[in-house]
Design brief:
Blueprint lengths: L1 E4 L1 H4 L4 H19 L10 H7 L3 H17 L2 E5 L6 H10 L9 E5 L5 H12 L10 E6 L6 H18 L7 E5 L4 H10 L2 E4 L13 H9 L4 H17 L2 H15 L4 E6 L5 H15 L7 E6 L8 H6 L4 E8 L26 H18 L4 E6 L4 H21 L11 H11 L4
Parallel strand pairs: 2-3, 2-4, 4-5, 5-6, 7-8, 7-9, 9-10
Antiparallel strand pairs: 1-10
Helix pairs in contact: 2-11, 2-15, 4-9, 5-9, 5-12, 10-15, 11-15, 12-15
This protein binds 5-phosphoarabinonic acid.
Length: 430
């Protein structure tokens, strides 16, 4: 479950400002439900949760467990919505240092030759026992034409064929649209296994399709629990949106008052990639026609020692959204030492989680007093269900918020500008 506490942000608004914003949010929420807003041909992220496709989930589980059992490395080759969701869920739910399951390596999310060269050299190096690494490759591109992903796939595909010969075909998985795009031509020519991203689901809303589910399953995460967490979230939010509306109303009213930056922060490093996923979801959906809050991501307490000064004391145009785990499992406890050289004996008997929680509460208090409106997104625990819940909550929040701006939440026309300029410089023919 997820609930957002908007109280520490609301105190920066007058009742009048809040009530005006509330009416606009209610209208926007209705527009989404009645399908009268912009981009209604892109609402598949909702319909996939209405009638869960268990056969698809089982297929993801079965291929995922094949990779989990046999793979040393799974390369997830994609950019933007084609990898951020998988990365967010994997990093939230799998141990940082693990002995089982494949190492997940991301590629195709930039154009660094240095990175790819080193990646291939790493794949070439044998395991500790001298045997070759077992490598699988999942390329993900809805359009099938994104250059960053296509270049990496071309090079990694060659590596796979050089290493495995014909067997490479059974180790390469492709996720793309039903039809069209260069990737579909490659799939047809080589016979790779293909998974479909439905046409009515946009990239950044696609984590609960094979785009996210296959790498997530390969990491050993229970995709059914994740998916049904989102199904439950949808059901609950159809019955009761009071908490969501309060959050959106407060965020929208602050935006109208000139707040420009939404800093998504977490004291749990495992949730920082969730912040990255949310950054894209909010940023690419809102940033249109001179509008939207700029989403930034911070990992605390690390970044309190870098940007903390700015948040506490810089230009007052920042709101902060904390991704906060309510019931963090206790891990390490601190013990007393006979000589208290480091002066930490006052913490003895406390768990690291208790200390981290106090650091979180202290930061909320300090930033709030420093003039930062704060939202606390309370996630029950780091479980597949809770993360599934949060995914749908934030997807719905995005769609409704962008309707308050009068924009289309589901397109990203601005992303084409750099591509056009780059293609012109590279001499690409139409
Ligand atoms: O959300 C989006 O639609 C984008 O971020 C895309 O996911 C991203 O540009 C990658 O596109 P594609 O999957 O077509 O390679």
């Amino acid at each position: 479950m997820i609930r957002i506490d908007s109280e520490p942000a609301r105190k920066f608004l007058s009742d009048e400002e809040w009530n005006t914003a509330r009416n606009i949010v209610k209208d926007s929420s209705e527009q989404l439900d009645k399908r009268t807003g912009k981009g209604t041909e892109w609402l598949g992220w909702q319909s996939i949760l209405e009638e869960p496709n268990d056969a698809l989930l089982e297929n993801m589980e079965s291929i995922g467990s094949e990779i989990h059992k046999n793979g040393d490395v799974l390369i997830v080759c994609g950019i933007g919505g084609s990898y951020l969701g998988a990365r967010a869920v994997i990093e939230a739910l799998t141990p940082e240092f693990r002995d089982r399951g494949p190492e997940i390596i991301y590629a195709g999310h930039h154009i660094s030759g240095r990175y790819l060269k080193r990646l291939m050299a790493y794949l070439d190096r044998p395991r500790a026992d001298g045997s070759p690494k077992q490598v699988y490759l999942n390329v993900i591109s809805k359009s099938g034409t994104t250059m960053e992903t296509a270049i990496a796939f071309r090079l990694l595909r060659k590596w796979m064929h050089d290493r495995y010969g014909d067997e490479a075909v059974s180790r390469i998985f492709c996720t793309t649209s039903r039809e069209g795009g260069a990737l579909n031509k490659i799939i047809q020519a080589y016979g790779y296994r293909k998974f479909i991203l439905p046409d009515d689901v946009g990239g950044r809303f696609s984590v609960l399709t094979p785009v996210g589910l296959l790498p997530i399953a390969a990491s050993g995460i229970d995709v059914k629990r994740l998916y049904y967490g989102a199904v439950d979230s949808r059901r609950k939010l159809q019955e009761d949106r009071a908490n969501l509306h309060e959050y959106l109303t407060t965020r929208f009213a602050l935006y109208r008052n000139g707040y420009a930056i939404d800093l998504i922060a977490s004291f749990e490093p495992a949730l920082v990639s969730m912040g990255g996923w949310l950054q894209q979801l909010y940023g690419e959906s809102e940033g249109k026609n001179g509008q939207g809050l700029f989403p930034a991501v911070a990992q605390y307490s690390t970044d309190l020692h870098s940007i903390g000064q700015m948040v506490q004391d810089g230009k007052r145009n920042i709101i902060e959204t904390f991704l906060h785990v309510k019931n963090a499992e206790p891990t390490v406890s601190l013990t007393a030492e006979s000589r208290d050289y480091d002066g930490l004996n006052y913490l003895s008997g406390k768990t690291m989680e208790e200390v981290n929680e106090k650091a979180f509460q202290g930061t909320v208090q300090a930033h709030s007093e420093g003039g930062v409106p704060i939202f606390i997104a309370n996630i029950d625990e780091l479980s597949a269900e809770s993360i599934g819940h949060a995914i749908y909550y934030f997807e719905l929040a995005t769609a409704i918020f962008v309707y308050t701006l009068g924009e289309n939440p589901f397109d990203q026309p601005g992303v084409e500008a750099y591509k056009k300029a780059m293609y012109r410089l590279l001499g690409k023919r139409d």
